[in-house]
């Protein structure tokens, strides 16, 4: 079984070679190979597994955009524009955690979620989302790095959360800062699991957390939106897209 060639004839001029078809970056079931064929190609070393429903050519760099495209293929098309990949799924998309067994999808509380309950292979979380909480990657909406870190600190067990938080803090973009994350949690007085979240952050930088709550002059309400935290702290660099 061979992957269709994308090379051009040697007689073609350089411009024609540049315009010749290229291998796809991502192979998903039925585009063009069925799932058993993809698994066979991977077993033969002709493809690398990126996601349980996505494969790449060996050596292709797994960018956040590519991981998001792979995750998007696992979300039914009718609901894809109504959900946001979040928590450990978003951490995986950003390259900061292993691929989770199930997609974690966030649904804005202003949307009806009853029609999404039967979405297979996914876990739905009804939350409040602000415009700074979501970015667009690879045809999928994904929680922003700051919102992802906040959700992981609050809702994911320490064994998985701490390595993912370390990865998010170490991203070359430096778009998640530990001090900002501590302030975000401290500024939300009614958030459940706040103490446990601060304990996770204390494991990363005890000097920032161990002395007690960070003093915040203006509390944030409501608690679920990183957008509100950004406004209170005067963070102007958070973008809506990557």
Textual characterization of the structure:
Mean pLDDT is 78; it is low at 16-21, 210-224 and 229-242. The protein has ten helices and seven strands. It is globular and about 50 Å long. Helix content is 36%, strand content 12%. Helix 3 (64-72) crosses helix 4 (87-93), helix 5 runs antiparallel to helix 6 and helix 6 (158-169) packs across helix 8 (194-204). It has 242 residues and is α+β, with helices and mostly antiparallel strands. A hairpin with a 2-residue loop joins strand 1 (48-51) and strand 2 (54-56). It has helices spanning 14-19, 35-43, 64-72, 87-93, 145-155, 158-169, 178-186, 194-204, 206-209, 226-233, and strands at 48-51, 54-56, 84-85, 103-108, 122-127, 134-137, 140-143. The longest helix has 12 residues, at 158-169.
Shape label: globular
Distance between the termini: 37 Å
- Any idea what the radius of gyration is? 21 Å
Q: What is the total tally of β strands?
A: 7
β-strand percent reads: 5-15%
Number of helices: 10
Give the helix proportion (percent range).
25-40%
Q: Which class do the helix and strand fractions yield?
A: alpha+beta
Explain briefly what this protein structure is.
With 242 residues, this protein is of the alpha+beta class. It is built from ten helices and seven strands.
